[in-house]
Structure prediction request, 667 residues.
Amino acid sequence: MNFVTAPLIADLFLLAILAIGRQEVHDGTVGANSINPIDIMVFFITLAYIAISIDASGLIRYLAFKVLQKGGKVGHRLFFFLYAFFFCLGAFIGNDPIILSGTAFLAYLTRVSSNIIHPRAWIFTQFAIANIASAILVSSNPTNLVLAGAFGIKFIEYTANMIVPVVVTAIVLFPFLLYIVFADEALIPLSIKMHELSEEAKAKKPVNPNIPNAKGEGEESDGAENKELSLEEIMNPFVDKKGAAFGAVLMAITLIVVLVINAISQSNGEHPVFWVTLPAAFVMFVWEISLGWINRHETREIARKGRREVELARAERAIREEQEANQVILEQDQQDSKNANGTSLTLTKSPEEIEMKILEREDGNLTENSHTPTLLVPGNLGGRNPNLSDPLGSSISTLVPKEDNLQNSRSSTSAMSTLDEKKEPVRPETPSPPQGVLGPQSSDQSDLDKRALSEQISRRVELPKQRGHTTLVSLFGDAYLWSQETFPTVTAVVSHLPFALVPFAFSMFVLVQALVTKGWVPVFAYGWDHWVERTGTVGAIGGMGFLSCILCNFAGTNIGTTILLCRVVQAWQDIHHKNGLPISDRAFWGTVYSMAIGVNYGAFSTAFSASLAGLLWRDILARKHIHVRRLDFARVNLPIVAISMAVGCAVLVGEIYVVRGNERYDA
Prediction:
């Protein structure tokens, strides 16, 4: 059970027991009370396609590389440059592309620097500032879309009211992070020592990471080679200049047109904003499909070579592991044999051979063809010379001519090899015998061993390709692989689209609509009304900011929280409308915009599930071997979200009192 299945199962259960019916499902999917879930989801998915396409082109990685060059190796300056970079980019394209590319970039950056002990400061700062920046534009976050739709807020008005609290939050938060939360040179050193990229790697043409197995055997490497690969990802990034330029221009045009149409829609009637983003996403899709088809031969060749390298590396590693395992087994067998016999037999010289060597040195008359016997004696005799009168030595010693012994050993080894080959067609290479027994291997033998190893690797590579019957799963796998190799960018973008958001959002809309129809939302609205009456505008801003931030951790991410609280505020409006009691302009808009701050800032509060971006961030870090525990996530984020909410709400209070009056709010 996860964030997609849990609300869906809850909806099905309520339908099964007839607690909800057709009306709740209709209003939760088609829409009610100015909230149109289908329009919101189509707008967000299509705009996300353009944003993720920009990311897939390598533009974000390339810009981050340029920021890294500007920041240099001065730790605090680089920290500030990356902070400002992620804020500006997040305000423009939203938090999801920043999470997708920025998280991986920082994971590589902290890995290839020798004096950043832990990446905590960099990754938590990036996650926080990306979510803070996403509060500026309506298009940057689906929560903003829900809120703007619920209260009929024009996109330009929303941005005008949110930009000041958000920018001030970012300004105040930076020194707080640098000098209080992460005030440790192990986290943000004064001078960052980076491993240098080799000249060969600098001269290498960067490869599109969207192509499967593009890095070849580098993907199977570890240790120093993996660190070199990480450094190459940062210092020599791939960027599709045509795709990046086209995507950036298309994104800018789309956002401008959306703002203009949304601003003039009041006089000309309401126009769904996805009328702009859907054609724009289709244009981007056609562009990427066309480029992929034009370059298909090159990308397929890169994928083929990389796949071959990966397969060879895996086969070689498997054979090496088998050899090591066989060596361990052989040593264990020898140890067991030694323990069983009590003593081990050691190859040494017989007295006759010693005498012959002495005579050979004296007169040189002995020839090399002399048959000198070899004596096997117990290993526990140490350095003592054995003699034939020793009863223990004579009882276990065996005299064998030296050359006969060698011939017998060779014939025995050859016979065993023949038997083993008959038993197993593919047999891992056995460890070489001790040099003292069979002597050093010849160059011919070494060549044969290399040839046999190469044949073993080839057989291992070809073996997985000899599969059985074609199944539906294998057909889908082949089709997906073909798509990756032919249209790498499109496939990467589609695979990263937040499709899971769609069933989750619809299920949450239905659940909240059930609370509305069953009377729970009016109960919450009455409670909120009493709170505002007692605390006024300041209490409305502080209370809604606190509620929205905290509920993100418990009410089905910040999207579920936004849906629920929007319905509560709408019910609050209905209460005052029926009673004929006015809501002040300050109290109403303070409530709405403090909710916007809370649901955006609440994404980096105490739980990964406070936002879908948090779950994505955790998964990306885990793939980069950086594991963030739940307790650490809450402990590090708690002071960050506390200062952010305090600053944001305080600035919003001042803004509301300056630009809003105390007159009656007209819904």
Summary: Residues 364-441 have pLDDT under 50 and may be disordered. The longest helix spans residues 296-341. The first strand starts at residue 345 and ends at 349. The two ends are 41 Å apart (CA to CA).
